[in-house]
Amino acid sequence: MTPLFSALLDALDRRMHLSGPTKKAANKVFPANWSFLLGEVAMISFAVLVLTGIFLTLFFRPAVDPVVYTGANEFFADVELPAAFESVVRLSTDVPGGLLMRRIHRAASHLFIASMILHMLRILLTGAFRKPREVNYYVGVGLLTMVLGEGFLGYSLPYDSLAGTGIRVMYSIILSIPFVGENVAFWIFGGEFPGEAIIPRFYALHVFVLPLLLAALIGAHVFILVRQKHTQMPRPDVDGHSYVVGKPLWPGQAAESTTLVLWIGGLLALSATIIPWSDVELLGPYLPGEVGNNAQPDWFLFWTDGLLRAIPAFELNILGTTINSLFVAGALIPGVLFGLLFAYPTLERKVYGLKGEWHVLTNPLDIPLRAAMVMGTFSFVLLASANATNDIISRMVGIPIEDLVFVFRLLMVFAPPLLAFGVYRYARRRLDAVGTDVAQTEEEAESRFQYVGMGDPEPLE
Amino acid sequence: MLAANRRSLAGWLVVVATAAAAALLFWPSAFASEGEQELADSFAVESYAQNCSRCHGLDGQGGEVPTDGRPVPSLRNNDDLTVPYLDLVLLTGRMPPAGDPFDNRERHVFYDDAERQAMVEWMADEFDIPGEVPEVDEGEVSRGLEVFARNCAHCHGNAGAGGTAGRQAWTPQVNNLPGIAVAEAIRVGPFEMPAFSAEVIPDEDVDAVVAYLEAVDEERGTPFLGLVELNPVFASGFVGLLSLALLGSLVYIGSRPVRLEDLIDEGSQPEAGVTPASGRRGNTDDPDHDDSADPDQHDQHDEEPRP
């Protein structure tokens, strides 16, 4: 499709001469690489979320007071339901197009977070976070934390059985914060769990506060990107440190983005007809005190649930407060992981004594610390996530769940460091084999790569 | 797909399922007629000798499993054993063949309805097993959902997808079971499951739970593939598929050469974007380089100096 759009936009351009002013205004070129589109996919997903979300707000009722459902769904014929759940059932069963909108919203939320995580992996692995782009990297990590929160809130709003269980777990984690936990939890929930206040408050956060913040941060993210220009993949024939080479915003990249928007929209709509994203009507409303055996958070918070399941229950009484396993799993370890993410650019720069600015991406295996850090943290998070599904795995494989938890504990403690160490050694050997160390300036890194097998380098103009 | 359509489809499914159930009920079973009672009994005698007696003994006295020495309950004078229990164990494939009856994952069901009926009747007679196979009536789906959520979901999961309940105890999936098995299990409390008396769950509530689980079974899935998302683990699998589709799309969109000249007949490449290759060597110098395969040769091409 892209060639078609290219031709159309190009024909338009010839007649309107749009690229002149655009180039002067945006002055932006886009290096051609498929992985550079991941961030754009996240933006498109966000737009879809806003549009479908607006539709959903027209029907959703953010409250928990009992309402008698009178629609066509036989599961809830004339049953008293919490207003929020009742309105979701009505959306799914009685509002034309409601179920489609709900499913697209849900699918887009999954895609939003998945593409952000993949985007972050690309940034981390290739080193696009190095000076001068640290600030934008911090904005990105901030975006990711906010989106995880936004996803949790959205999961909670329907107030189905799983949502209520999730809120209950969150309440317990907040309670477990030393010294201030109880006060904070009561402040957030307006009293004891579950209370009447939590759904309206979550709603305000989910549809108003966080989307505005997200939009602002996404704007900042893109603005900084435009100011600083793209990084690019190393090419022997390009002096990437001094120039960025690629398609212009108009019409080349505009054509590609148009294709992408239509493609992603189609993918989401199609998935909503094939995949039952979020069948909350089958689960029933949240009944305080009842927990289903299938209670799990959404996949992007599996790792926190996996930590909760892995860490043995304990309580330490120190300094007149209590530290328990819930706090460690739900707040402390996630805090440490995100702290690592924030600290990493500085860490790499300090450890290798890097100097100057960096615009050309590198193979992570050229920087042993980076390869080890990504391998270590991501294998840990993946193993913790897998542990959140241990009841399902136990059924599938036929291993008793207690043994499985034991295996996962071992894996979570020993596998990430071992993997990280193995990758570190491999990367080191790779450098030693050609007798080099990590390059400290971009010129040095490029000189190793450029003009390989092409005779003497020409002087750059 | 519109919800209304889904409902009407579900309605038809209910009609069809009810008709099928009625047909099965009045279908002459393999051993139905008077003269074939003997046939049924002889089938049961033979089947018992072949499949049950190795562990339960020829006289139903119990003992231990020959291979691993686990204790085997007696079929005679056993206070725990009733006809519904026996029927349930055969109906859900817990027995035979001898395996671990506590392994609640998908099992192969050995006997068809007629054979099971023959077995249960003969064994009840032979070993003096009390009780009767219960009957299930129409139930109220919405009531069933609430009864299920309050009494069953802790172990069997919301909507009955099954789960894990501790060492070696997997709770079975219950939304794909015949209603009669659900009704039997509630009263009997097989294996690790507690029994629920009529005071806790009255008969009409049992019928309601059966109706609810059947409704879930009909409701499940999408028009294509019949997929179902009963918990976030299923969802995470779907997200994996979606992400793969995304990556495939990106590689396809982002790596394809855009060959303008194939589409444009308005002269040559647009002038916009073609700049002298400062800081860039001509690709033609590279003998290994194939121009036609390089998308950037046909792309509009820009470079800008970094600040």
UniProtKB/TrEMBL annotation, chain A:
User: GO cellular-component terms in the record?
Assistant: membrane
Q: According to its UniProt record, which reaction does this protein catalyse?
A: a quinol + 2 Fe(III)-[cytochrome c](out) = a quinone + 2 Fe(II)-[cytochrome c](out) + 2 H(+)(out)
SUPFAM superfamilies per record: Transmembrane di-heme cytochromes (SSF81342)
Q: Where is the Cytochrome b/b6 N-terminal region profile domain?
A: 8-234
PANTHER family, per database record: CYTOCHROME B (PTHR19271:SF16)
Recite the UniProt keywords alphabetically. Membrane, Transmembrane, Transmembrane helix
Q: Which cofactor does it need?
A: heme
- Its name, as the record gives it, is Cytochrome bc1 complex cytochrome b subunit
User: What GO MF terms are annotated?
Assistant: oxidoreductase activity; quinol-cytochrome-c reductase activity
> Which Pfam families did the record assign?
Cytochrom_B_N_2
Give the EC number(s) listed in the UniProt record: 7.1.1.8
- What biological processes does GO assign it? respiratory electron transport chain
Q: Tell me which Gene3D superfamilies the record gives.
A: Cytochrome Bc1 Complex, Chain C
Into which EC class is this enzyme placed?
translocase
| Transmembrane spans | 41-60, 111-129, 135-157, 169-190, 202-226, 326-347, 367-386, 406-424
Species source reads Euzebya pacifica
From TrEMBL, chain B:
Give yes or no: UniProt keyword Transmembrane helix: yes
Coiled coil where?
none
Q: Which residues cross the membrane?
A: 233-253
What the entry lists under InterPro entries is as follows: Cyt_c-like_dom, Cyt_c-like_dom_sf, Cytochrome_c550/c551-like, TAT_signal
* UniProt key word Heme: yes
Q: Where is the composition biased (Basic and acidic residues)?
A: 282-307
Q: Cross-referenced Gene3D superfamilies, in alphabetical order?
A: Cytochrome c-like domain
Q: What does UniProt give as the signal peptide span?
A: 1-32
Question: Could you tell me one molecular function GO term of this UniProt entry?
Answer: heme binding
Tell me the protein's name. Ubiquinol cytochrome C oxidoreductase, cytochrome C1 subunit
